[in-house]
Write a structure and sequence with these properties.
2 domains, globular, Ribosomal protein S3 C-terminal domain, 9 helices, GMP Synthetase, Chain A, domain 3
Length: 294
C-alpha cells in the first residue's frame, strides 16, 4: 500500500472493505458497461454540485433492475452557494432562465432544485427505464450537531477557533478549517481534502507555501482532539509552486499513516488542479482509527 499503489483498490480485498457501487451483472460484457456508466455518473454528479458550490464527500450507488438509489454526502461552501439564493448578491445567478421562477431561499432548497430539476432529469435520459432516487446528507449540519452535543467537543472547537483567529479573516482559510473539522470526524474524507486543496490552487497563483503551512498547522492541532477519528494524514503535492520554472514536490505528514499494513484503514484519493502555471497533482492518505472502521 505504498505511494505508487492505490490504497482504495488495495484495501478492497479485506473483509471490512465497503464498495461504493453495488450492481449485479449478467455477463462479463455487461460488467464493463456498468463500470463505465458508474464512472461517468460520478464525474457528472461531482461536476453539477461543484458548479453550485457543493463538494461531494462520498457517493454510494445501488443499481437494481428497476431502480437506482444514490446516497450522496455533501459539504456546503457557503461563500459560493449563498449567491444562488441571496437577493442582495452582486453576482449573477447561473441558474437557467426557465428555472429561475423556483423559490430558493436556503441551501436545502438549492439542493432540492439541483436534484429535482437537473440530476433526476439528466440521469433519467442517461439511464433509460430506471426509477432514480437521490438522497443527500449535509455534513455541515452534522458537524454542528456533533459540536453541540457534548461540552468537550464544544470547548475544543472554541479553543481551535481562538488559536486560528488571525486566519479566520480570510474566507478561504476559514473554509479550509471547517473542511478539516469534517475530515477528522467523517470516514473516507480523503476526497474532500484533496478537492479542497485543488480548488485553492486553481484560484491562487501564488502564496502556495503559506497554504501548506496552514494545512500542516491545522491537522497538527485537530488530530489530537477527542472528537478526531483519524490517526494521521499524508499529503503529497507536485507542481510549479508560486509559478517557478520547474516543478517541485511537497510532502505534508501529520500523525501515523502506515501504508504497508492490512490492519490499518486508509482513505485515499488523488486529484489534479489545472492552473495557468500548469497542473498540480494532489494525493491524500488518511489513516482512520480502528473503532471507526467497524
Amino acid at each position: 500500500m505504498g505511494q505508487k499503489t492505490n490504497s482504495t483498490i488495495f484495501s478492497l480485498t479485506t473483509k471490512k472493505a465497503e464498495w461504493k457501487s453495488k450492481y449485479i451483472e449478467k455477463n462479463v460484457e455487461e460488467s464493463s458497461v456498468l463500470l463505465f456508466q458508474d464512472v461517468e455518473i460520478r464525474n457528472y454528479i461531482n461536476r453539477i454540485f461543484k458548479i453550485y458550490g457543493f463538494l461531494v464527500h462520498s457517493c454510494k450507488i445501488d443499481y437494481n433492475y428497476g431502480n437506482i438509489i444514490f446516497l450522496i454526502n455533501l459539504y456546503n461552501k457557503k461563500n459560493e452557494t449563498e449567491k444562488f439564493y441571496k437577493k442582495d448578491s452582486k453576482e449573477k445567478l447561473s441558474i437557467p432562465k426557465f428555472c429561475q421562477n423556483f423559490s430558493i431561499s436556503n441551501s436545502k432548497d438549492l439542493i432540492n432544485f439541483i436534484i429535482n430539476n437537473i440530476l433526476v432529469i439528466d440521469l433519467s435520459l442517461f439511464l433509460k427505464n430506471k426509477t432514480i432516487t437521490v438522497k443527500t446528507h449535509n455534513l455541515n449540519k452534522k458537524l454542528q450537531l456533533l459540536i453541540k452535543n457534548t461540552k468537550t467537543n464544544f470547548f475544543e472547537y472554541k479553543k481551535i477557533l481562538k488559536n486560528f483567529k488571525r486566519f479566520l479573516k480570510n474566507p478561504i482559510y476559514k473554509e479550509l478549517l471547517k473542511i478539516s473539522f469534517v475530515a477528522i470526524t467523517e470516514k473516507n474524507s480523503a476526497k474532500l481534502v484533496a478537492e479542497a486543496i485543488s480548488n485553492y490552487f486553481t484560484k491562487q497563483k501564488k502564496r502556495h507555501g503559506f497554504i501548506l503551512f496552514f494545512i500542516k498547522k491545522t491537522f497538527s492541532s485537530l488530530i489530537p482532539l477527542k472528537m478526531s477519528q483519524i490517526k494521521g494524514i499524508k499529503i503529497i503535492i507536485a507542481g510549479r509552486f508560486n509559478g517557478a520554472p520547474r516543478s517541485n514536490k511537497k510532502i505534508i505528514k501529520v500523525g501515523s499513516v502506515p501504508l504497508q499494513s492490512f490492519k490499518s484503514t486508509i482513505s485515499y484519493y488523488e486529484d489534479t488542479a489545472y492552473t495557468s502555471n500548469g497542473t498540480f497533482g494532489i494525493k491524500v492518505w488518511i489513516c482512520e482509527n480502528e473503532n471507526t472502521s467497524k
